[in-house]
Design a protein that fits this description.
single chain, 425 residues, alpha+beta, 2 domains, 4-stranded antiparallel sheet, 17% strand, disordered C terminus
Length: 425
């Protein structure tokens, strides 16, 4: 996405909706742009004046606003609302306010524009005591629109309100979006006597100082939020590094193991370490007796209880979640055991009272040879990341190439490669 206009402009649109559309902005921001849709909080991004978006995105916002309100003057009204309610943020409360008069602002139009837009060049053609002519030369390589022009007209008209002035009169003599080479605005505003200007300048300076302090406090909060986000990313990165180190350290051991059960124990220990699993079991299919039997367990502080070690699940009991996953080859997650139909007397719940469970299949040569079962005692359940890693193990064929009760060097090497692939970011 191109960075052509500051999010101060999208913030003005959202603020208008918050007040005039009962706070409902879903239709405004839904499927706006892939880079924005992917964000965990698109609205927060669009209201942050430290961010930039393309002209296409801001145009889409204006066009959607026009449709929702059935009013083609909405971009102009959004500008009026932004100035009147001081929602232009930094541009209004500090950058523009410091100029303290319409005449001074017009002398610095290009500077103001460059601070918050890259879509046009601003030409001040004439400037007198209470009137001026301004031309906007839009950049044709950007997706500029009449809606953006209309919003600019609203900003020009009501900007004097920033220093307690009156709205000026704006007349558009020609329009770039009607085949003219540029948009030309003729501006007029009431004359002010010298005493009024001096008083206004003094009051503006004091107000400007207070606004600067408030803006610095807001910037401080933004920096703190950014720090928390970066810190969270560092935590996730460290977790990924831990995963890769664990795989590297256990790689040689995996290659030397020939017994399938011992291999699965090593694999389960790796998953337990890097996935932050609460407790987990490996259950393998006994083809002759047609049931699932215990192989290995982790996360039990005093050791795996004997009743779990001796636990057997007949494969024909499809009302049992482990037997069902073995039959379907599809992972199952029960986020709230107390609200589910899982038979609590027929499961690990006899030892530890979990709040949620997740069962993923172990697959060899397109055949389920067992399951990995993990649970949680936390109300938040089993994290999506943990479930995705375990599920990816099944989808990738974590024990692909293993059959019977003995592995081969080739199948074990393949298993090592699959484990590494599972933990790639």
């Amino acid at each position: 996405m191109e960075k052509e206009t500051n999010c101060i402009n999208s913030k003005a649109v959202l603020d208008y909706f918050f007040e005039h559309n009962d706070g409902n902005i879903s239709a405004l921001v839904r499927n706006l742009h892939p880079e924005i849709d992917y964000l965990p909080d698109p609205v927060r991004f669009l209201r942050d004046p430290n961010n930039w978006i393309s002209c296409q995105v801001i145009t889409t916002l204006y066009q959607r606003a026009e449709r929702i309100f059935n009013d083609d003057r909405i971009p102009f009204k959004i500008a009026k609302h932004a100035v009147e309610n001081a929602t232009l943020g930094y541009i209004q409360r500090i950058f523009v306010k410091s100029f303290w008069s319409t005449t001074t602002v017009l002398k610095h139009l290009q500077k103001i524009n460059d601070k918050f837009n890259r879509n046009k060049q601003v030409e001040l053609v004439t400037l007198k005591k209470n009137e001026a002519t301004v031309r906007l030369h839009w950049k044709s390589d950007m997706m500029v629109s009449k809606q953006i022009c209309l919003n600019n007209q609203g900003i020009f008209t009501y900007l004097p309100l920033v220093w307690n002035g009156k709205p000026l009169t704006l007349t558009e003599k020609c329009c770039f979006f009607e085949e003219a080479p540029y948009c030309e605005y003729h501006l007029k505003w009431p004359k002010r006597n010298k005493i009024h200007e001096i008083v206004a300048r003094f009051l503006t300076s004091k107000s400007f100082l207070m606004d600067t302090i408030r803006e610095m406090e807001q910037d401080k909060k933004i920096i703190e939020q950014k720090y928390e986000e970066v810190n969270l990313l560092n935590v996730k990165l460290n977790q990924k590094m831990k995963q890769m180190v664990a795989i590297q350290e256990t790689g040689k051991a995996i290659l030397s193991i020939l017994d399938v059960r011992q291999l699965l124990i090593v694999i389960m220990n790796i998953l337990y370490d890097v996935c932050r699993i609460h407790r987990a079991l490996v259950m393998l299919v006994d083809q002759q007796e047609e049931y699932l039997e215990y192989v290995h367990g982790v996360g039990f502080p005093t050791g795996v209880p004997d009743e779990i070690k001796s636990y057997r699940v007949p494969l024909h009991r499809l009302n049992n979640i482990m037997a069902r996953v073995t039959h379907t080859g599809q992972s199952e997650y029960v986020a709230h055991l107390d609200e589910s139909k899982v038979n609590k007397e027929d499961f690990i719940e006899l030892n530890g009272a979990p709040t949620s469970i997740f069962v993923a299949p172990l697959i060899s040569r397109s055949k389920v040879i067992g399951v990995i079962v993990t649970d949680s005692v936390d109300e938040s359940g089993i994290s999506r990341e943990t479930r995705e890693i375990l599920e990816a193990s099944a989808d990738a064929g974590l024990v692909h190439g293993i059959s019977g009760h003995k592995g081969t060097p080739d199948s074990i090497c393949n298993c090592s490669r699959i484990i590494a692939a599972v933990f790639e970011p």
